C-alpha cells in the first residue's frame, strides 16, 4: 500500500470507488441524505471547501462529508455563459460578483457513512495538534518503549521488498542489501500528472526504524537513495532533481526507513517544517556529526488522541 | 505592513472590499463576465477550487478568477433538504452521491480584472518553482551581490521599529538594542480567531539580514525572542508554546531578521520544509557550530521569474 496518511475508512472508500463503478449513476429513491439530522460539525475546512458532519439517519449514527468539486476547465465556457451574476463591488479595474451556476455545473460530492461507528466519528473529528520537543533522552525513555509496545506491523513493507505485493508498481530497485531500496508511487498519487508527483523509497535494510537511528554509517545508503532516486524519476517522469522535494518524516507513519520524493510544486501532506526533514540537510548533519540525530531535540506534531502524546504528558514534557 | 506575501493587486482588492461595501448587492446589467472570451488558464487550484483565467472582454485584456465558496454551516439543513441527489456508489456502510444544490446555496465568487495589464496576468500565471541548493560560497558569490544590487528597501521595517507606523498594532516590545524586538500580528491574520494565529517578531538590530548572518553571537537574541515571544502570545491570546510553530524563512521576503510565530494547526503560507527553519533547530545548530549557517548548503524554492534564479542559472548551479 506504500504510504498513506489516510485512515482505513478513506482507503476503503477509494477501493470501493475503483471496484464498484458499476453502480455509478443509479438513482436513489431511498436517500440517506435527505433523512439526515445534523448533530454537530466534526470539522470544517473552509480553504478546501469540505465539511464533516455528525448526525443521525432514522436513529442510526451517520457521518456526512460534503466537498465542493474542483472547477472543471471543460465546462468553463458554459458556466460563464449560463450563470446568473450579481455585482457586489466595482472599483477601478476590479469587480466582484456572486455567480449562481446551474446545479449540474456546480456539484457537491457527498459521502455518507451509515451506520457510523465511534471510530468513524473520531477519525473525522477535528483534533487539537500539539508540537512536542523530544530530546534524545526522551526518545530512549518515552518514544522507543512506546513504539515497541505498540508493535506496529510493517509486514506490508516486507511484502513489497519481497515482491509478494505491489511488485508491478515498483518504478526502480537497487537490490543491494546495505544501500539498496525500492522506489514506487505513493498511493496518494494517481500518476496522471507530474504536478503532484509523489514516490516513496523504501530501504532493504530492516534495522533502521527512523531518522533517530541514523548515523554516519548510513551516509552511503542516504546518498545512494538521493542520487539513484533522482535519476530514476528523471528517466521515468522527466522531472529533474531541481523540481523535487526529498525528505523524511519524524515521526514517520511506519517504523521502517523510507524517503519521500514529491514535486516541489505540490503541497503534499506532511511537507511542513515541523514534520519533514530534507534529505540534503540530514546528509550534511550526519557528515558533520555522526550522532546528530541521537542527541538533538526534534520537534514534531501530535494529535490530541495520539497515545504517544499521553506518554509525554504523563512525563510532564508537554 | 508587517509581512505579506500577497501582491499589490490582492491587497488592493481587500481594501476595496472594506471601503466599498456600499455597492454590494447592486445588480449589473452590463456584465463583464458574460462577454468574457477565454484565452487560457493561468492557474488551476483543484484542492482549493479556484481557477484563474485569462481572456478578453470586447477586445480588452481581462482576468477572471472563480472560487467556490466555503460550505456555510448556517445553511446546511436547507442544503441537505432541498438538493437533488444522485447515488454514485454504495458499498457496505459507505455511499457517495452527486448533490445538485439550489444555486443560491452554492455560490461561486467571481472576480474580474478588466482591463488587465501584463502585470496582472503575470501575477496570476502559474510559475514553475525550482529548488536551489545554495552553498555558503554561492551565498557570498551570487546571492549577497544580487540582494545588495537590488537594494530592497526595509524603510517600512524601520518605521515600525521607530513607531512611525503601525505603533498601535504592537503586541509586545523588548526595547533592548541587542536582544530586543517588536512583536505584531502579520497582515495575513485578521485576529478574529487563534486557529490561524500569525505574528512576526522583528529585531531591533539592523545588522542581521537573514539566517545566513547568524552565529553563536546571536544566541541571546534568538533565545530571548523565543521565550518572550511565547510568553507574550500565551498572555495575549492564551495560546501555549506547544501550539506554536516558530520559524525563520530562507530566503526571507525582506532582509531584516524576523521570526514567524504561527499556530501549529494553521497551514500558513511559507511553512513548508523547503523554506522554513524552526527556531529551535536554528538555536541548537548554532550552539553546536557557530558557523553552521555560514558554511551549510541551504535549499530554498524560487519562482521561475525570480531574478536570483537567473543568477544561479547563469552560474550553472541549477
From TrEMBL, chains A, B:
UniProt keyword NAD, yes or no: no
Pfam family for this entry, one: DcpS
SUPFAM superfamilies in alphabetical order: HIT-like, mRNA decapping enzyme DcpS N-terminal domain
GO biological process, one term: deadenylation-dependent decapping of nuclear-transcribed mRNA
GO MF annotations, alphabetized: 5'-(N(7)-methyl 5'-triphosphoguanosine)-[mRNA] diphosphatase activity; RNA 7-methylguanosine cap binding
PROSITE patterns hit by this protein: HIT_1 (PS00892)
GO cellular component: nucleus; P-body
Entry superkingdom: Eukaryota
Residue numbers annotated as active site: 258
Residues at which substrate binds: 156, 166, 186, 188, 249-260
Quaternary structure, from the entry: Homodimer. Associates with components of the exosome multienzyme ribonuclease complex, such as EXOSC3 and EXOSC4. Interacts with NDOR1.
Protein's UniProt name: m7GpppX diphosphatase
